[in-house]
Predict the 3D structure of the following.
Amino acid sequence: MTQSRTVSLARGLEMPAVGFGTYLIPKEETSVAVSRALHAGYRHVDTAEAYGNEEGVEEGIREASAALGLVREDVFVTTKLWPGNPAWGDPAKSSDATVAALEASLERLGMDHVDLYLIHAPFAGDGRLDQWRALVDLRDRGRARAVGVSNYSIDHIREIEEAGLPLPDANQIELHPWSQKPDLVAYLQEKGIQPIAYSSLVPLSSWRAVDGQDSAKTDAMTAEGARGDSPFKGLAAKYGVSEAQILLRWAIQRGFAVLPKSTDPERVRMNLDLFSFELETSDMDTLAQMDRGDGVAWAVGDPTKTD
């Protein structure tokens, strides 16, 4: 296959292109899920302060590392700062609080550094730049090998650029055939910022119904994803893989890292098997015609998600 199994961040850091996502995995189940993923071959685990399962990630990595003979450098770990959200009555974290948040995450993870530390969302308003300066300082001090953002728009990143600060190493955003964000992706690539795709499997799911969060996914979208004649089903049959593998492979061929999550052992294995096939150009062109706008998981038009 022509795609690498890693993607490049700044300063020569390589990140495994397929990470194991842990969002919505209960903390009591996280250690088993993470250990199973590492046994299956994953070498990138994605968590966050807000997920409440960093301790489970630590336990899972520790157990699998002992069994597999892995050392710290073998497993790429991403976690995220919860920035606060004044619109929800949650004050934005100061620069000092940002530093303290990473130190607390490192304690929960049992590590002296993370590989990638992200600001989870652009919620902090006037405090965004102070939080970003703190992340750059944490990177300079070796507490994070790379730093970035999540759910940031072009304007949010231009704010960093116009302040004369180093640009993020990565931006973790919703990306899948229904939400391709061509302008944002082109901007990120122009600036050397690595896109990381989350919610890659939105077209196959009822997205976030399990935790009661709002979603921009309509009943018609849900029905289309379940139709027997959906393009994902047809492509899966053509290549002899699952629909999930089609969606994840689309992202890999676009140059994005992906973060599939599952607690089913077979799906965990299949979601990592993305390099044994390649989508033909005509099929990538078909998927390119499916873009429906800014997002489903990260609904646009919500003032708490744009400032």
